[in-house]
Task: structure prediction
Amino acid sequence: MKNSLLLSTVLTALLFTACKKDDIAKKPQKEEYIQFFDAQIGGQQVAIRNSIDKNRSVFQGQWTGVGNGKGETVDMYTVNVQLPNDKATDLIETRLRFQIFDIEPKAYQISGQVKYYETFGTYIGLSKKLDNGSWSLYVPQVNKKPFEVGITKYQFVYGSGVPIVGGTLNGTLYNEKNLQDSIVIKNGKFEVRY
Result:
């Protein structure tokens, strides 16, 4: 009887001191990382936002660790941006691609000495595909002012092998077949992880 009375008293005390459902700490939801690309390209403002799950093919980054045979790794990062097309022209696809070899926070002056798409190089290029199937490639030129890509953020997130890369873009890219044809990229800013 004594045990029943004690048990009854303890249960009653617990009933009046128990937490409400709202008082229980909720597991914080992981905030979705939104990456961005903003620039004025050829006089047109471009603004892209996406995440790992939304529109990833439009704007993406890729980190690569390149081994040098001495057991050391050199970091390389490539960014691909699919630009919106002008419906009033015969342009059907425009892509901006830049790659930084041995990446770290600093300004990179890209002069065109390294060819576009060189496997282990720092480069930038914009390619346009017309509806007739032809392509035009715009790249920096050796005898012109270098294109500047500034890396302002290169940070690995705790627990991840994928860095966040942020920076700026400013300069002129020239049609490799006709130097009179150029595209100016101004006030470019980006931050990418995926």
About this structure: The mean pLDDT is 85.
